[in-house]
Specification:
mainly alpha, 0% strand, elongated, Reverse transcriptase zinc-binding domain-containing protein
């Protein structure tokens, strides 16, 4: 909406699916392109107001310790893929987005100092790697 308001883009239709108005809920949770990313990761798209934000899905089989970081990275890479379409006219396939999620998570996890967080990060990296 903001880019449309600033006339950077001409309408508020989702640039990834071209089928719905682009809202936060659509972009991150309902757009088919985003749903495929969540599915590839083995997660149901979490509702922005629902309790699933608070704990990882059972399918992950990884520590709940870094679940919020995983969600943030997934949302960031969905946003980044959207911007790739808008600003570079490049549409990233869902499997590439998942690979980018793994790469960002791996880079971020190397900065962890506490042993228990590093162990949790390794479990999440293993899980995410199994989904690529």
């Amino acid at each position: 909406w903001n880019l449309c308001h600033k006339t950077i883009i001409s309408d508020d239709v989702c640039p990834r699916c071209n089928g719905h108005p682009e809202t936060n809920a659509h972009l991150f949770y309902h757009c088919r392109a985003s749903v495929v990313v969540w599915d590839l990761l083995g997660f149901n798209p979490p509702s922005p107001l629902a309790a699933p934000w608070l704990s990882p899905p059972r399918s992950a089989a990884a520590s709940p310790m870094l679940w919020s970081a995983v969600v943030i990275i997934v949302l960031w890479k969905i946003w980044d893929a959207r911007n790739s379409v808008v600003f570079r006219h490049v549409s990233l396939p869902p499997h590439v987005i998942v690979r980018n999620i793994l790469a960002d998570f791996t880079l971020w996890s190397h900065r962890l100092r506490k042993v228990d967080l590093r162990v949790a990060a390794t479990a999440w990296r293993d899980y995410l790697s199994s989904r690529v």
